[in-house]
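Request:
You are asked to prepare a plain-text protein record giving the amino acid sequence and the C-alpha cells, at your earliest convenience.
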Amino acid sequence: MPTERKLQEIPCCKSFFDKADETAENEMLLKEGDRQFFEDILVNNISKKIGARIFNSEKRRK
C-alpha cells in the first residue's frame, strides 16, 4: 500500500489518521462501557428477583 504510506508521511494526513484511530478506539470503549453498564443492571435485577423468591419461599414454609 504505497499510497497509504505516502499519505501518512505528510504531517496533516498523519494527524488525521491518528485522530481517526483515536475516534474508533473511543467508540469501542463507549460500546464496551454501555455493555458493561447494562450487564450490571441485569445482574442486579436478577439477583434482587432471586433474593425475593428465596425470601417468599422461606416465608411460606414457616
The mean pLDDT is 80.
